[in-house]
Structures are given as C-alpha cells and as structure tokens.
Amino acid sequence: MHADRFFDPDPTIRRIARSLYEETAALPIISPHGHVDPALLADDAPFPEPTSLFILPDHYVLRMLYSRGIPLEDLGIAPKSGGRAESDPRRIWQRFAEHYYLFRGTPSAAWLDYQFRDVFGVTEVLTLETASEIYDEIREKLASPEFRPRALFDRFNIEVLATTDAAADALDNHARIRKSAWNGRVIPTFRPDATFNIASPGWSADIEKLEGAAGAPIREYADFIHALELRRAFFKSMGATATDHGVEEPYTARLANEEAARLFARARRGEAGKDDQRRFIAHMLMEMARMSCGDGLVMQLHAGAYRNHNTALFERFGPDRGADIPIATEYTRNLQPLLNAYGNDVRFRLLLFTLDESTYARELAPLAGHYPAVLLGPAWWFHDSIEGMTRYRQRVTETAGIYNTAGFNDDTRAFCSIPARHDLSRRVDANWLAGQVSRHIIGMDDARDMARALAYDLAKRAYRLDA
C-alpha cells in the first residue's frame, strides 16, 4: 500500500494532500452511525477466527462473491429453513482468497488491505497461495489480549461508537458496558422502523415487543405514541443522541389524530395494506420530528434503498445478504410538510442520506443550504468510495458548504474496518481540499481548518456528542 494512495498524481496537489492528511490522520475517530453489535464490546471475547471477522458480517464481501456465482452456502450462510452450509472457516477463507481479485478497484479492497496491513501487520498479498499462511497469522494474533475488541477499540482511537438498536431493545449489552471498568464510550441509536411497518407480517410481534419494553399495554394509537416516547427517553438515559429511520421514499405528511388512530386500529386487526403503511410511515416521520424537538435526539433519515430486491435470496436466507439496490428518490416535495413544520425550529436537527447521487446538487444541497435544521450525511453505502466521496464534495459544497454537512460516519458492521474507512475518508477529503488550494479557491489555512472539521469536528457537532 503506497503512502500516497488515493492522492492525485499531480505533484502539487499530492504534496498539499499529504500535508493535510498528516494533520488529520491521528485525530480520534467519531463513529456516530453504524451497525456493530454491542455484544462484541460487552463480552470482550476474542474473535474466533478470521472468517467470522472479515467475511460473514460484511455484506459488501458477500454480494460481490455471490455476483460471481459463489453460493452463499459455500460462504457459511445457512438457509433459514436449515440445510447444507459450509462449516469449515478455513475452507471459506480459501474460497475468499481465491476470488480476492474480484475486489480490485473497489473500496472493499482498500478497506480490507488496510485491515490486513495496518491492523494485523500482514505483509503479503492475499492470494490462494498465501491464504493459509495469512489465516494462521491472523488467527494467532486474534488469540492475544492486544486483539480483543476493547483493546482494538482503544488502539483505533475511537472516541465514541454508536450502534443501531430496535425500539424494543432492552440495551442489556450497553448496560453491561456502562457497568464495566472499561471507559470506552459506546452509545445506542433509537431505530423504530419495524413498529411503523403496519402491513408487515411481523408487525404485531414487534408491537408486542414494544409493549413489553415500555411496560404498558398498547391497545390504541395513543398508547403506541406514549410507548415510543417512553422508549426514546430510555435510550437517551443510556447515552443515545440520535434516532435513525430507513425508508424507501422520504414521504412525509401529517394525518389527523383520528385518521392515524384508524390506521393503527386497522393494523391491529391485521387489515392494513401497503397504502395504509405508506401513509402511516409518512405521519410517523412527522411524529419523530415533533418528538426530536422535545427530547433533542438528532433525526437521521436514510432513504432510497429497495430492500431485498432478490426475492428468492431473501426468502431463502433473510435480509442483509447484499441484495439491496438504490432507487431514484425525490426529496423536495416529499420533505416539504416536515420541513415546513420543523425545519426552522432551532431545537430540531435532521440528517439526510441518499443513494440517489442525482439529488446532491439539485435537491439536497439547496435544502441543507437553506433550512437551519437540515444537515447532509456523508456519501452513503454504494457511494462510500473513493470516487463517490469526491463526487459528493464536488456537487454539494458550492451550494451548502461543508458546515451544512455531518462529516463522516462509517456505517459498518465489520468492526475492524472502522479505522480503514475513516482513513480512506480523510485521504479523499485531503485530496479534494488540496485541489481547492492548488486552484486558489481556498488558502492553506482554510484547508487545514476544513480538513479537521471534515475528519472530526462536524460529526461531533452534528450528532450532539459534545456532552
């Protein structure tokens, strides 16, 4: 891995980029949105072996290998109904190494190469021939205290790590972390999506879980709202500073209380349809914004993912197997009801994420460049890449500036990829800023301030993590 990787080949830009990166490389990591299992840090048990660390939790890896005809069973993913799945982690690793060339030129390769070299000190390139040796080298290190999750958390210089947790989650793992002698800051994030999906076959079960967690019966809509308010207060007492909402479209609309109650009652009878669900979610996003004005939790909205596009794969293996696909998304009209109601309220903060790059300059930057409550989340998911992050800066900055954005978050399940993702982001931003300096759009002092802001300050401010 070259010391100047991801920097422009122009010597002037490369020199400036290197200088800016060196000033931000050692800053603490703010990880305000992600999907690391808090049990990992509550248990602090050794990682069992390399396959469970690098392959099984990473849907980027799974989707690439599946796209080239490798069955998920051969990667250790068992069908929901039972049946054959590879159980030998070394054989899975060998298959991964044999096809590692598939990741050339992708951000996955950049992240994985960083982890192999900088986290585990592996000096050889992963190939079929080196796979067994590298597997043994990593497995041996994983057995040592220096590679336990909490030791790595401290070594990665993570200042705060936010997880994403269902509304009914008891947060037992977070409680165990807080009661331990370890001082790592791990906080929950409130995600109530399952309780809004009133046409989902599993909705009634999710309401029962919410009922149990809130400690009160949920018979009607008013009970439901009260239960959500109680859970938000509990999450906040456990350190949460944000909520998160994943929607296919960012449609918002306020319903009369009577209409919302009618939809909820229909759902309780098992009669709600897809249109009912669309209207109910639109109303509940308004309710989440209202509650955020009261309790101060930052509201995140992740829109534009067509979930589980491969129906046969979903039915066989369940969600999060790499089959989610971006779709075109409209924000200006869909968000107007919510922003007209709360976008000017100084108590409210809304972070917007998109998988539709065409909206950066046309809709999202103008919205963030006007409404005081709106900040833009970083390039997300399919666009969390070298060129994707650069396109984001190019299309957003001239209208919104960088101070109407939320810095960077890694949004990962793969714990050891956290420093790799932040390093890539800091390099890409340094390179983009170096281009601005070389064209005399900004001065070097401004670039230094902006590099630090993008790497650290903006995320901390956006998620209200100063407390």
What do these coordinates show?
- The protein has 467 residues and is an alpha/beta fold.
- It has 2 domains: 11-47 and 148-462, TIM Barrel, CATH 3.20.20.140; 48-147, uronate isomerase, domain 2, chain A (Orthogonal Bundle).
- It has 20 helices and 11 strands.
- It has helices at 11-24, 38-43, 50-54, 59-67, 89-98, 107-119, 131-142, 149-155, 172-179, 193-196, 203-214, 221-237, 257-268, 274-295, 311-317, 332-342, 359-368, 386-400, 418-438, 444-462; strands at 29-31, 158-162, 165-166, 186-187, 190-191, 242-247, 298-303, 305-306, 325-326, 350-354, 374-376.
- The strands form 4 sheets. It has a 4-stranded parallel β-sheet, covered by helices on one side. Strands 1-2-4 form a 3-stranded parallel β-sheet.
- α1 (11-24) packs across α19, α17 crosses α18 and α19 (418-438) runs antiparallel to α20.
- It is globular.
- The protein starts with 10 loop residues before the first helix and ends in a 5-residue tail after the last helix.
- 43% of the residues are buried.
